[in-house]
């Protein structure tokens, strides 16, 4: 039996931490079964500058570091699911806003985000990118809770 073919693109928001890994793992597991493509995205919170601009070299190095981490994640996912199509991207901006904008720009059919599931004062102080994306996105959002260690 052949695998289903799909034109679905799933945007995975990756924070380069446990939330991003949980989101990427869950997205890959499901997407591999339905033939969806993954686009793993990290939002750099400061404006990235061209390498030739003042301080641009430093921000370029940070961007490359983040891109390398995303590529390592993509390689790990492809090792587990060889047929999986995975792209990575690092962009600048406010995470919630850019996740939603990129999902619309890429015509994503699903957004996948991770969450720690914090409550109370910690949630109030730190906020939740996942919660904001769920409330503001017109694209369906899958929220993946980070497993407890």
Describe the structure.
The protein is an alpha/beta fold and 149 residues long. It has one domain (9-145): Rossmann fold, CATH 3.40.50. 46% of the residues lie in helices and 21% in strands. The protein contains five helices and five strands; from the N terminus they run βαβαβαβααβ. The chain has helices at 18-34, 56-80, 95-105, 120-126, 129-136; strands at 9-13, 37-44, 86-92, 110-115, 141-145. Strands 3-2-1-4-5 form a five-stranded parallel β-sheet, with helices on both faces. Helix 3 packs across helix 5 (129-136). The longest helix is centred in the middle third of the chain and has 25 residues, at 56-80. It is globular. The N and C termini lie far apart (37 Å). The model is unreliable at 1-5 and 121-126 (pLDDT under 50).
Detail the poorly predicted runs. 1-5, 121-126
Classified in CATH, the superfamily is HUPs
Please estimate the helix content: 40-55%
- Gap between N and C termini: 37 Å
Average residue-wise pLDDT: 84
Q: Please provide the count of β strands.
A: 5
Return the CATH topology.
Rossmann fold
CATH class: Alpha Beta
CATH architecture: 3-Layer(aba) Sandwich
Element-by-element helix/strand order: EHEHEHEHHE
Rg over alpha carbons: 16 Å
- Main sheet summary: 5 strands, parallel
Strand content: 15-25%
Output the structural class. alpha/beta
User: Going across the major beta sheet, what is the strand order?
Assistant: 3-2-1-4-5
> What is the general shape?
globular
């Amino acid at each position: 039996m052949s695998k289903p073919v799909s034109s679905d693109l799933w945007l995975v928001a990756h924070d380069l931490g446990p939330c991003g890994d949980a989101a990427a793992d869950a997205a890959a597991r499901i997407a591999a079964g339905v033939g969806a493509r993954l686009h793993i995205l990290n939002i750099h919170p400061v404006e990235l500058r061209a390498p030739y601009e003042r301080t641009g070299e430093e921000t370029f190095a940070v961007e490359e570091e983040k891109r390398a981490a995303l590529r390592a994640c993509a390689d790990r996912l492809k090792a587990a699911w060889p047929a999986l199509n995975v792209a990575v991207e690092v962009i600048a901006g406010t995470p919630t806003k850019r996740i939603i904008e990129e999902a619309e720009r890429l015509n994503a059919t699903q957004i996948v985000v991770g969450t720690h599931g914090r409550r109370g004062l910690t949630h109030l102080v730190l906020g939740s990118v996942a919660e904001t994306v769920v409330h503001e996105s017109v694209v369906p959002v899958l929220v993946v809770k980070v497993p407890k260690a």
